[in-house]
Structure formats: C-alpha cells, structure tokens
Design goal:
This protein has 175 residues and is mainly alpha-helical. It contains ten helices and no strands. 19% of the residues are buried.
Length: 175
C-alpha cells in the first residue's frame, strides 16, 4: 500500500498541488472533476470499490490518507505567499504581494497590523479574480491572524496551514 500511495502522490496529487495557482477561483465543474480523480486515487490506494461505501470515502481521504479535498488544496496558495514574503521566490511573484503596512494611505488601517496584503482591483469578475496577483493575496487575507505571522518558519507555517484546512474541512462535514 505504501508504494502505491507514493505512486499516486507522484502522478496525481503532486500534479493537482502544482496547479493550485491556475485553479484558484475555478468553477465547480473543474474542481469537481479533479475531486473525482482524487476520490478514485483514494479508492485505488485503499483497494475499495466505487460502491463499497458512501460517506466512508471522506473519512478515508481525511483521516487515513491525510489528504485534503481539492478546494482546500487550492487554499494552500498561502504557502506561495508566505514564501514570497520571506523572499524565497523569484522576483515576479514577490511584486504581487504588497503588505498594507507598506502603502502610505493604508498604514493606519487595522489590516496593516494584521499582516494583510493589498488586493488589486480587477475588471473581469471571472478571470480577474483568478489572476495570481489577486487570488494569492485574497487567500492570504482569508487566513487566521496567527497564520499570517511573517516570523513563522516555512515548516511551521505549512503544518499550521494544513491543520487549519483540515479543521475547516472536518467542520463542514459535521454540519
């Protein structure tokens, strides 16, 4: 099972995670297809059939495999922003991440103390919000205050982000 799990990670989950910036703000028709692919991969890894269980698939994904659903995987855009803020990415994504505390007209806003980023205006409601310069700051600003702390190391940030996303995913399943 371990080697099959590694194979699935190498060919499927890594591809989904690698396209997070493209998938941000995508319609459910696209994310739904990817979720079905992820569900099929979970069934292959766990050696269960398509109709063996209904609600057990989400339990398998979250509790046993520790995989996030596709929408929560897309929210991991925060990792990219965190790397930008620490200067660990090329210059072009760094140019898209402007803290509100750096903008003179916004320095007195509460958001400047909470490590929010400036979300630029965009014209098109469908494609404009999916642009890296818009989607990443929006994802960053949606994170809780303790996650937006720039002094967190990259490993601690990833761990806290995944914990936060799992809590949200499991919270939505309980309701």
């Amino acid at each position: 099972m371990l080697s099959l799990r590694r194979l699935v990670h190498a060919f499927i989950t890594s591809r989904i995670d690698g396209s997070n910036t493209v998938l941000a703000g995508s319609p459910r028709t696209i994310t739904g297809r990817l979720q079905r692919l992820l569900n099929a991969a979970a069934r292959v890894v766990s050696n269960t059939g398509k109709f063996d269980f209904d609600r057990g698939l989400t339990h398998l994904l979250h509790s046993e495999l520790h995989w996030l659903d596709v929408p929560q995987r897309i929210l991991q855009l925060g990792v990219t922003v965190h790397r930008c803020l620490q200067g660990k990415t090329p210059q072009y994504p760094v140019n898209c991440c402007h803290p509100t505390s750096d903008v003179a007209s916004r320095q007195r806003l509460r958001s400047s103390d909470r490590y929010h980023l400036v979300v630029p205006r965009h014209r098109r409601s469908t494609l404009g919000r999916r642009a890296f310069s818009v989607a990443d700051p929006m994802a960053w600003n949606a994170l809780p205050d303790d996650l937006r702390d720039p002094s967190l190391s990259a490993d601690n940030f990833r761990k806290k982000l995944k914990t936060h996303l799992f809590r949200n995913a499991l919270g939505h399943l309980a309701h």
